[in-house]
Amino acid sequence: MSMLWRTEVLVAAMQGRPVGAMPEGIAGISIDSRSLQPGDAFFAIKGDRFDGHDFATAAVKAGAGLLVVAEGKLPALGRITAPLIVVPDVLAALEAVAVAARARARARIVAVTGSVGKTTTKEALRVALGACGSVHASDKSFNNHWGVPLTLARLPEDCDYAVFEIGMNHPGEIRHLARFVRPHVAVITLIAPAHLGHFSSLGEIARAKAEIFESVEPGGHALLNHDDPQWKFLEQAAHDAGVEHVWSFGEHPRATFRLASWEQTGEGSRIRVAMAGREIAASLGAPGRHIVQNALAVLGAAYLTGADVEKAAAALPGFSAEKGRGRQHRLVHPSGGTFLLIDESYNANPASMKAALAVLGAMPVAENGRRIAVLGDMLELGEQSPALHAGLAAPLAEAGADRVLLAGPEMAALAEALPADMPCKHRDSAEALKPLLLEAVQPGDVVMIKSSNGAGFTKLTEALLTAFPAAAPAQQD
To answer: What is the pLDDT of residues 256-265, one digit of tens each?
Structure first.
């Protein structure tokens, strides 16, 4: 068993009270008994919906090396056979371990935030930096009040690079989380309408994202999108926070990491990036202009960490879209032939919707094939929601959508805004839309599914993947 933490160091970090015969060390850290591996420490965190203490017995059965539990929960735990570290508050204990992990880390650390593209950029950095050394990165999109300290607590001491995604819904959240991470490089992908229910303007969102600069390490770097209208504000905010080096990426002529050329290939893109007095060529394993923008940030961050940029660029063809974030599926239709499903069902806001629709518009369709947009509600947009949903009418027209299927109360505004000659059907929910979608698809079609995660459009992706088998490799083209 490889050892992530010596138990005595773990106990000291969280100032806990050990109970029972402690193991020498632990192999990993888990907060979920279902994915826990033998030898892991199980932190019984109390979340919004579940209390980890209710799964203590399951964690022991799964092979937990020890459990971290709250003092106030001890009477309810009964006879737990595994050794315990008892603390006043389990989440605070996890945060203490995160601080200890950061203090001992040798890694060059990149933190990524922004309104869109955080997870894609983080995953592409995992691939790119992985070609240059050992890399540790957030699992899934673990970017919140427990995901960031958990990812940091799992950081191996001898890792070369570490990549953290930092998200937020309210002001102050990024400030709190960035203090744990203390990045050498802070990346802001783009400021866009998202979580507007909690903010009054894009300027307020930009200010909240700029909190990340306060925790950049001395001598560290801020890497910003020069094509973002919030660029000048963010540049000044970084300088005001004491960040010594501020760089930019994008198509802007003055961008430090500048897109020199871009060619979409259907399955991905080929790009050339002007940087450090030379041009770097790279191929990307996922399509779309927004992916290109993320790749510029990736190569810029790799350069700023001191990684071999040529190796990082050469690794990017190995990056492909995540589940629900643009992953493509070629499926067989029973009447003969195939159709393409683009799964963007994990999340949505106006900027990412427009980017996804641009990908749909760029996708070639077979003879008699159609571009079908299947769209669900964009959540947390506050009072601007009706206008922002209606504003998708123009991008749909530009994408050449032949048919539009909509679901959710917010999407009613888009249904009303579409021109009369664009075939459209609207239903109250994803479940109500499902039979229409299954009936609609035909050979040669390209189908794009996109919504906020809470709209439940993953069910539509699953319905298509269940109803239509995957094409054999020979049929993928």
So the answer is: 999 999 998 8
